[in-house]
Amino acid sequence: MDKEYRYTASAGTSALPAEQAAGVLRNTYGLLAMSLAVAAATAWLAMASNMAPMNPLIVIGVYFALLFVNAKLENSAWGILSVFGITGWLGFTTGPLINAYAQIPGGTELVTLALGMTAVVFIAMSAIALVTRKDFSFMGRFLMVGLIVAFVAGLASFFFNLSTLSLVVSAMFALLSSLLILWQTSAIINGGETNYIRATVVLFISLYNLFLSLLHLLTALGGDD
Question: How does the record say this protein sits in the membrane (predicted)?
Answer without folding.
Answer: Multi-pass membrane protein
